[in-house]
Amino acid sequence: MMTSAVACAYAERVAAVAPVAGLRRPEGCEPGAPVPVVTFHGTADPFVAYDGGLGPAAARLPAPDGSGRTLGDLGVEPGGGEPSVPALAAAWAEGNGCEGSPDREAVADDVTRVTFPCPPDGDVVLSRVDGGGHTWPGSEFSRGIGSVTGPTTFSIDANEEMWAFFEDHPRPRS
User: Fold this and answer.
1) Its pTM surpasses 0.90
2) pLDDT (tens digit, 9 = 90+) per residue, 43-86?
3) Mean pLDDT for the chain?
4) What span, in angstroms and rounded, lies between the C-alpha atoms of 61 and 172?
C-alpha cells in the first residue's frame, strides 16, 4: 500500500512500482507523470480482499492504539466498500493514459496476467493468483506462514517478474 502512495506522491522520481497484495489508488492521487505498475494479488487474500476492502483476517489484527484490542474490537469489518483489485488496476491504467479493455492470459493453472493497453511509459500489469493468499508469489517464507497468510503460488516468481518489468521500464535520464 505504501508503494502506491509513493507512486502517487513521487511519480517523477520513480521508474515503476510493484505492489504485492496491496495495490491502492489513494484518494486524490494525481501523479505528475505516468507510473508503470506491475502488481500481484491473490483472490483468497484474508487481509486485503481481492473483491475490495479488508479481508476477514484484518479484523483480528492489533489496534494501532496499543490498547491490546483488535481492529474488529474497534468496529472494523471485512469489505468496507473499497474498490476491487481489478478496479484499482484499471484506475492506474486510466491515470497512465491506457485505453481499451485489458488482455487476459493464463500463464499457469492458477495465474492470470491482466495487461492493459497502455503507452510504453504507463504499462499496467496485474497477476491474479486464483486461490492465492496475502503472499509473495514464489516465496518459501510466504509458504512457511501460509496458516496465517493463505496459499502461496510457485507458478510464478514475483521477484523475477518485477526485475524484468523494472528492466523494461527504466527511469528516463534527465
Assistant:
1) yes
2) 999 999 999 999 999 999 999 999 999 999 998 888 878 899 99
3) 94
4) 41
What distance lies between CA 108 and its chain's CA centroid? 19
Contacts of 154 (CB under 8 A, 6+ apart): 137, 138, 143
CA neighbor of 17 nearest in space, from 82, 132, 117, 96: 96
Cβ neighbours of residue 77 under 8 Å, at least 6 residues apart? 54, 59
Measured from the Cβ of residue 59, the count of other Cβ atoms closer than 10 Å reads 17
Query: What does the longest C-alpha to C-alpha distance in the chain come to?
Result: 51
Strand partners, 109: none
In a 13 Å sphere around the CA of 82, the CA atoms on its Cβ side amount to: 23
Contact 29, 50 (CB under 8 A): no
Under a CB-based contact definition with an 8 Å cutoff, are residues 73 and 63 in contact? yes
Q: C-alpha grid cell for residue 107?
A: 500463464
Q: Distance between CA atoms of 140 and 160, rounded to whole angstroms?
A: 14
